[in-house]
Amino acid sequence: MLLNYLKIAWRNLRKDKFYSLINILGLTIGVTCGLLLLLYVTDELSYDRYHANGSQIYRIVSHITEPDKVNRWSSTQPAIAPTLKKDYPFVKNYVRLFPYGRVMFRQGEKRFYEEDIYAADSTVFDVFSYKFIEGDPKTALAQPGSVVLTQKAAQKFFGSKSAVGQSLQTNDTTFYKVTAVLEDVPKNSHLTFNGLMSIGQNERSQAGNFGGFYLYSYLVLPENFDTKVLESKFPEVYDKYIGPIFKRMGIKVTYELQPLTRIHLYSSMEGESNGNIGYVYTFSAVAFFMLLIASINYMNLATARSAKRAKEVGLRKVMGSLRSRLMAQFLTESVLMTVIALAASLILVVALLPFFNTVSGKEIEFRELLRPQFLLIALAIIVFTGFISGSYPAFYLSAFEPATVLKGAFNVKGGSFFRKALVVAQFTISLTMLICTWIVYKQLNFMRNHDLGYDQEQVLTINYEDRQPRAAYNAFRNELLANPNVRQVASASSPTSNIGGRVIFTVESNTGLKEMGFRPMRVDYDYLKTMGMKLVSGRDFSEKIPADTLNSVIINQAVVTRMGWKQPLGKKIILGSLPQNGEQGPPTAQVIGVVKDFHQQSLYSPIEPLIMLCGRALPVTHIKILPQNVEKTVAFIGQKWHDAYPDRLFEYRFLDQDFESAYKADELRGRIFTAFSGMTILIACLGLFGLATFTTEQRIKEIGVRKVLGASVGSVVLLLSKDFTKLVLFSFPIAIPIAWYSMYTWLQNFPYKTDIGVWVFIAACLLTLFICWATVVYQSVKAALVNPVKSLRSE
């Protein structure tokens, strides 16, 4: 019986090639896009799940509550994890990771800067699961002066030779022995590194520090452990160890436990570049809607061409065919069509995967297509698309009464309301996605073009790795300024686009001295001028006033707002905490200037209150160059760098690149969303094109009569387009509020955001209407131009 169903289904597909092509093309596009999106979603959901005990690992997150603000940091103090392990036996293990960032290593004559270097406790390989190529995980970081490299880093230094036993030297002349080589950290990890060093003397001396928040702490807890048990102990830990440090400052510290497998999608703390569960939901919904629209196409076209199948159904019923068997026949046709589309889709997915990886920033491999989970998804697509899309036509067509059909009294209008509802649903989804895509790109353009409060164009930055070479800074600076293509040179303690964490200052408030956390930044005399920053009051640091390096600070407007100062100039700021027990306190400075607020990080973070202190020859050099002859100017800077620092590599970045990289992840997601929104509209238009074709075929004689009676081509086109235009117009009041609410909610994630604007909705509606007309008018004009003699000659 099944074989017979398949034979008849195949004959029907071949018999009406246009109908089959429209459906298979729509299903193929929908399934291909759905599979690619599901590959993206499954990759996002796989982060950190490769660790053997990943479900038992938790990161400690710190909540620092000041009198006027709350900060949530992924970093902790060095002492918190060891203390929890010591005081609470149910804590099975812990590891701490000290971020070193960018480190220059030497190996003989070779020198390389290596990014993402951490110092780690020797327990790191007991907590996390990494695959070792060489070395023993139990002893890899047990001894001081040990370093574990990833395969990529080891090949960079040692080529094809074994790295274990070799030595590397850092900038500060410390030697590290390579004790192991790991496979590169999987991309689906929230924490990536190129090397792990054993805990050094500096970290060991800080082991009991409950004051500074500058490392990452992870705990291993028993399986199925109730984390509330440990979180309920945190107040005890605070009162015993931490309270005495922070209470006098009016600061409260609390902690939470964050499951390792939720960090990538659910963590949005400062300095982290992670995924977003919202995008996972969005792309999952897009995949579902694309399959749904493709299914709607099938249902629409199947019911629209019901007149062609009516006599077939009538004859089958007269010959004794049961309704259940007719339904099985129609379902077989839809499933066969889905299987053909799925086969074509799998070929397309394999062909498009490299391009998709480029667009999405992923590294999804072909073997993912052979995983059991993916094969189950493919089976689910057949079931969903094949049976869901075929269900209504099967019920509808199998219900025809044979006597009515064979008498010629059959009317195909019975399913018209359902078809119209499906067309409205299609264009509601398409219009919603179009509006959302438009606003996503509007927000990204807003962030790229937003006034940062300084001039980032043509600013080249160079980071020093230690203090020793800064002695040559002044000579290096003077050499650069001798070049007419170099406009300004300045130095600062950090890049302008990534100013570091907060420290405690004692500030003169309207009610007395208060200890509060602020972002600090050291800058030299030329910094504000080089970066094009504006003073709103007061003066800049001056070389003519040597005392500026000790007792003067410049603040931004955010400090004035936070402190509620009406007259900030002259306010006292003690560069540290208040002295205790008669000890000598830190120096006292006063505010000499207020700089206009500028963004210290990307626009994902609000502008923080900032205190600038004066310094000389600081770690980061900012060089403002002319836009002409950029390559020659950079080469000149590189030569002068090598002259000043012959043993240091010349590596630089342009400041605008740092900001562009901050938005890269969202831009990639925006491209994906745009591409698949376009595909959604294309699928909807394919269905509309097919529906318009069948509609005009059914009305061909009516069109002939109208032309004989004097109707113009334009009036016929308007007649045929009118019904479809109404359906698209019906989708507008449904799609607009859905899109507005979705985008309004999404924009709340950004401290600085664009306005949604009425014109976006107007433009999207007009574009959708134009696409509808362009799809329908072709068939309408074609039908209107047919000679009425040909359409009426059978009468």
TrEMBL record:
- Keywords for this entry? Cell membrane, Membrane, Transmembrane, Transmembrane helix
What residue intervals traverse the membrane?
20-41, 278-299, 334-353, 374-397, 417-441, 672-691, 727-744, 756-778
Domain called MacB-like periplasmic core: residue spans:
20-190, 457-602
- Residue stretches making up the ABC3 transporter permease C-terminal domain: 285-401, 675-784
Primary location class: membrane
Which top-rank group of organisms is this from?
Answer: Bacteria
The record ties this protein, via Pfam families, to: FtsX (PF02687), MacB_PCD (PF12704)
Give any GO molecular function from the UniProt entry.
transmembrane transporter activity
| Membrane topology according to the record | Multi-pass membrane protein
Which subcellular locations apply to this protein? Cell membrane
Please give the InterPro entries that the UniProt record associates with this protein. ABC3_permease_C (IPR003838), MacB_PCD (IPR025857), Macrolide_Exporter_MacB (IPR050250)
Annotated Gene Ontology cellular component terms: plasma membrane
Q: What is this protein called?
A: ABC transporter permease
